[in-house]
Each structure stands twice: as structure tokens, then as C-alpha cells.
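User: I'm writing a short methods note and want a consistent example. For Anti-sigma factor antagonist, I'll paste the sequence; you return only the C-alpha cells, no commentary, since I'll be parsing the reply automatically.
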Amino acid sequence: MSITPRVSSPAQLSLQTTNPAAGIVHIAVAGEIDLNNTGELRAQLFDALRTRRPHHIAVDLAGVRFIDCGGLAVLILLSQAALSSGCCLEFTDPPAFLLRMLKETGTLSILTVHPTGPHA
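Assistant:
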């Protein structure tokens, strides 16, 4: 299992990427996702899809404290890219505010979201 922790900015955003098994990537996202770090978020998420070529990615959102429309757009773009590459992508453990945001924006119907953890 490899672990790659990265912190975009102190107390702003951190991502920890692990490979619990061959072809599976788990990415834990924590902190605030906003205009200041959506580029870093996008780069790291897409890098995992491109370089590791997994058949399954689980993005753990439990540690997210804030997300703006730019962050939401990154999740949608990643979902589309994963679908195009044949990778199963799921978002797990979103906090209540994020789950509500996904429902209210209609995004919940286009993303695979599991409120209670990965289903790999």
C-alpha cells in the first residue's frame, strides 16, 4: 500500500492517496475546497486517474469542511473523465452540508455517492 499525503495550503486542503489493492485508489480529501485550491485538487485527482490507471477510485469526502461551485465542478469533471476511461468512481462519506448541496443542485443524480463508505 502506498501513501501520498499532500497539503495544498496549511489548514486549507489536504489529500491522502492510498492503493489498498491493485487497481484501486482511495483518496481522502479534507479541509476547504474553494477557488484558491481547486486547481490543485483537480491536478491531484486527475493525476491519480491518469498515472495509476485504476479500475476503481473512492474519494472520501468526510473531512471536507467547505466546498464552493468550483470544487463541485471538479467532482463532476472527474466523474466524467473516470466514466470515459472505464473507471468506477464513487464519492463516500460526504458531510451533511455537502450531501444537501449535491441534492439541491441536482448533482447527486449524476455522481455515485455513498454516505457510509466505499463499496469496492
